[in-house]
Amino acid sequence: MNVSTATLLSTEPAWDGAFVSWFHAPELARGVEPGQFVMVHCSVEGLDPMFARAFSYYRVDGDRFAILYQVVGRGTRWLSEQPTGAVVRMYGPLGKGFRLPDDPGNLLLIGGGVGIAPLVDTAERAVAAGHHVVAMMGARSESHLLSAAAWPKEVEYVVVTEDGSAGAKGYVTQHLGKYQEWASKIYACGPNPMFQALADTLRFNGRRQRPEILMEENMPCGWGMCYGCAIFTKHGVRLCCKDGPRFNLFDVY
Amino acid sequence: MPPSLAVDLAPGHKTGLALRNPVMTASGTFSWGFEFAKQFDINALGAVVSKGVTIAPRAGNQQPRVAETPAGMLNSIGLQNVGLDEVITELAPKWAKWDVPVIVNVAGDTIDEFGEMAAALDGLPGIAALELNISCPNVDIGGIEIGQDPEASARATRAAVRNTDLPVIVKLTPNVTDPVKLALAVEAEGAAAICAINTVLGLAIDTKRRRPVLPRARGGLSGPAIKPVALRIVYDVAKAVRVPVIGCGGIRTGEDAIEFLMAGASAVQVGTATFADPRAPLDVLDGIEAWCAREGVEDLREIIGCALPAPV
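Output (structure tokens, whole complex):
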């Protein structure tokens, strides 16, 4: 973990109500594992809101990195409105990220909504390491989807929308179809109901993959000090920030 | 020459509790110290105070456990901890390798448990003092129900003091009409120092769900929002007692700490600020040093209690 500041390079819309912000900060971009996160302060004086917000690394490129976030409250709104060149306080990288298999395999990446954020960096690294990658994204509608251009060209990108405005209609976990059998390893990030549905589906179909998931919980500190982000697993209580955010799906669901 | 920042938090006690500087961590905001030690120089701190320990391990409360509020937060963690045995066998031996004194915060369910835990921790290398947690608002038994009653607070203090040679610090709740009564009651039973304050009872409502945010409704408010309340109580307590007072509540800068010292605190605990800024305790220490240099203060003890009214 490094405690530092980052210079905002750009903020572009990712979809309706979501943004990608690129920052320059060598000490926050170095040594990042896919699925790790950074704590970003979303106020100047640090009093209201007082605590930094946790964001997955969306992409990492040398001394620069990007986060992809949905505006859900005051903090993310403030962040989305910062001008280029703004200096933002943050600390990271934090948490335990995904572990990619050593041998090339078929990796299925499943993202629900803004949970897609850490999967692009994961896909880039997986492709570079010789894995075959299918990325599935579930979203509310066509206007809440990450652009296909965000993915490495080797990645097969499958979209599912709740209203059917793009791709198959329904939830992403209802359309795992042939990919369940194809995948040698599954990685997922999204809301808790998506994890529950994923666990139920895989269990019902007798799938033996042990998916790794990135979980989210309210994290005031992000580094194991406050105990606010407890996750109750089958092996006892864990902290999302320090013991996670990567968990084995079936340890939790 | 750099200013002298050393303070003794148990001057009348057989072992004393000598701190190289007055910056401590607050219980429940620093886990067991190992995360910090991985990132920073833990021996730069005046003292480390552990998370609250109970006799048996605890999983803590259900989610949500925290609610962010302006300049602060409500917490209802529920004393999640590894339990007394693991503290004794696993953690204390690691603490013994540090130069910084480690103070174990103990949370009994009953008066007797304070005595039992004090006895179990007595004489262990790696533990410099105990802090009695009689003020946790987030558990069903023990905690604040002891800490809101001067007589029960006195009995818990007596139980601990009789069972250990370690200095016993008692951490007071602000959630009473007159915290001075609590302070006098625990001082009379041998408390080596008094820490003020634990969190202030508060509430937040989720307007979408039309229910309190926290499952137990009430939570403990901490952060800069409570600093004036903490300062007032430190000031009142320091006027009334002879033992050292440790200030806690909303401290995040050197200037905040100086205010507490002037109000009569001999040391300060940095808590919630560490959640927002991992370097907060170190920044507070740097700030105190810078303030002393700027103001020409050579020994921090010059300013401890300087804002208190002259004794009559």
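Chain B touches chain A through 32 residues (CB under 8 Å).
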